[in-house]
Amino acid sequence: MTAIPGLHTALLSLEGHIIDSMTLPRLLDLVMDLGGNFEIQELRVGKRKTDPSTCRIEVGAPDPTTLDEIVRRARELGAVAAGEEPIRTLPVPAPGVYPEGFYSTSNLPTQVLIDGTWVPVERQEMDCAIAVDREARRAWCLPFADAVPGQEVVVGHTGVRVQPLERSRQAEVFSFMSSEVSAEKPKQLLIEQIAQGMREVRAAGQGILVVAGPAVVHTGAARALSRLIELGFVQALFAGNALAVHDVEAALYGTALGVSVTSGLPIEHGHEHHMRAVNRVRAAGGLRPMVERGELCSGIMRSAIVHGVEIVLGGSVRDDGPLPDVVTEMTEVQRRMREVIWGGRRDHPAMGMALMLSTMLHSIATGNLLPAEVRTVCVDINPAVVTKLADRGTWQSVGLVTDVESFLRQLAEALER
Hints:
By secondary structure, this protein is α/β, with parallel strands linked by helices. The chain has helices spanning about 25-35, 65-75, 175, 185-205, 215-220, 220-230, 240-255, 275-285, 285-290, 300-305, 330-340, 360-365, 385-390, 405-415; strands at about 10-15, 35-45, 55-60, 80, 90, 110-115, 115-120, 130-135, 140, 150-155, 160, 205-210, 235-240, 255, 260, 310-315, 350-355, 375-380, 395-400. The protein has three domains: about 1-80, LOR/SDH bifunctional enzyme, conserved domain (Alpha-Beta Plaits, 2-Layer Sandwich); about 85-165, conserved putative lor/sdh protein from methanococcus maripaludis s2 fold (Beta Barrel); about 175-415, Rossmann fold, CATH 3.40.50.10690. The protein is built from 14 helices and 19 strands. Strands 5-10-8-9-7-6-11 form a seven-stranded mixed beta sheet, with no helix packed on it. A six-stranded parallel beta sheet has the order 16-13-12-17-18-19, sandwiched between helices. The chain has a four-stranded antiparallel beta sheet with strand order 2-3-1-4, with helices on one face. It is elongated and about 80 Å long.
């Protein structure tokens, strides 16, 4: 190998579906954007769909600091430096505090080098540290709230590699239109393919997570979502106080925010109905007791309880009541959401798909907890919400700018067919 003249150099290697995932061109752009040069020494392109490609690249920079930055950023794209050093760790200094210089995770599959072995990081999630148990050869994403003094945490970027997601080889919704957000997509085709993706997720033994806002009730889409639950295509439901309250209001009084869900007309004194609904649930001791006593006979919450759906209701400062079922401590909400996503209960699988339905903040919060492999569908009438959610992923995300009622109705019809 001949070093690039006049530059500090390092040898990087890439392996996998580095062309389909755009990893190789992104790496070359990165080197040039940071003021470096590169020389491709070897490139082997897989001949079949399942064959990985490999590439060895010598990168050069005018000074050691720039070279270190190139190598650090290249590792985030999955590159491995020749003679890669093992991870470095420091102990957690105080409860809920990472050591200075900790490695901050992405949502992409990550591995760490422990005693010469690349170990996959468990429970992959963005914006966490990586905790390590060297004796057990384990590594996992560690949220701030779970950091305990003495725990070993990865610092720096040496011994860490990220595996970019590859584009699907099949012509399906999570490959050919995922990077676009438009109100002009062929929605019926997309919905049919989303339905097929849901069937595949369930056939693989994974669960489907629904993150829903109160607009699902306000638009009259509650019946369609209940139908998805009844058909077995919802294993978990994340929502806030408002969805549950207005769902109960609709079941008890036939209104949502005081407006009739059948005629769309305001009802006299209807503005009181959601408060009366809160009171009824609180008097019963919660949603499940209401269902068991026969006091709640319809709606999303009843369907979810009857069909064993894992429910996590996260509170906010805006909540009326809130309902007894709502968890108001945010760290505890996150803990429960993580357990559901990863299949914390023996009879519930890890999630393989997430439907984000007309709720910006709850969807963003959930998206931050999901690994990149989870297929994500975001549906909202506001294009900005769809764009923000689609930006968190790559080929696994699809966004639809449309009315949530028409989407859920057509999706339920597609799944029934």
